[in-house]
Amino acid sequence: MKIAIGSDHAGFKLKCEITRDLQNDGYDVIDCGTYSEESVDYPDFAEKVAEQVLQNDARGVLICGTGIGISIAANKIPGIRAALCQNSYVARLAREHNDANIVAVGARITGPGLAVEIIRTFLNSEFEGGRHLKRLKKIINIENKHQERS
Ligand code: RB5
């Protein structure tokens, strides 16, 4: 499975650790930057990762200081469902119930050990469909309706 990963400067160090761990797990990791701790703007990396996720039918990992800004930005892109996760239970449900295709974590909130566990849980969980599919379709309908208006 292809994984697109991206962060801003606040998430850079954690991105390096997560990239290494995911590569060791055997994932094909596309690193969308940033590539240093020099100050950058998180929406730029949210967009890069989202584009890779959509183009490659991949999963995405986004990291900023809190995980909030970068997940908000990613969720503006049609087809993206980015879930900010602070524990593994939420990460599992984000896949099983919401079919999230991006997991976001906050490097200033979540330590590296927990962050990797959250991301592995996300990547190893599957959408359950069933009653959740009806709700997912409603989300997609909202997205389509508002795209038509803009
Ligand atoms: C950058 O200082 C910080 O604002 C950013 O990483 C993130 O936490 C925004 O939501």
Describe, in plain words, how this protein is organized in 3D:
This protein has about 150 residues and is of the alpha/beta class. It has one domain: Sugar-phosphate isomerase, RpiB/LacA/LacB (Ribose 5-phosphate Isomerase B, Chain: A, 3-Layer(aba) Sandwich), CATH 3.40.1400. It contains six helices and five strands; from the N terminus they run βαβαβαβαβαα. It has helices at about 10-25, 40-55, 70-75, 90-95, 110-125, 130-150, and strands spanning about 1-5, 30, 60-65, 80-85, 100-105. The chain has a five-stranded parallel β-sheet with strand order 2-1-3-5-4, with helices on both faces. Helix 1 (about 10-25) crosses helix 5, helix 2 (about 40-55) crosses helix 3 and helix 4 (about 90-95) packs parallel to helix 5. About 40% of the residues are buried. D-ribose (RB5) binds near residues 8, 10, 66 and 69.
Task: Describe, in short, the structure shown.
The chain has 150 residues and is an alpha/beta fold.
Features:
50% helix; 5 strands; 150 residues; binds D-ribose; 5-stranded parallel sheet
Order of neighbouring strands in the sheet with most strands: 2-1-3-5-4
The radius of gyration is 15 Å
> Strand content of the residues, in percent?
15-25%
Number of helices: 6
Bound compounds: D-ribose
Number of domains: 1
Q: Helices and strands in order, then pairings?
A:
Layout: E1 2-7, H1 12-24, E2 28-31, H2 42-56, E3 59-64, H3 68-74, E4 82-84, H4 88-96, E5 102-106, H5 112-123, H6 131-149
Parallel strand pairs: 1-2, 1-3, 3-5, 4-5
Bound molecules: D-ribose.
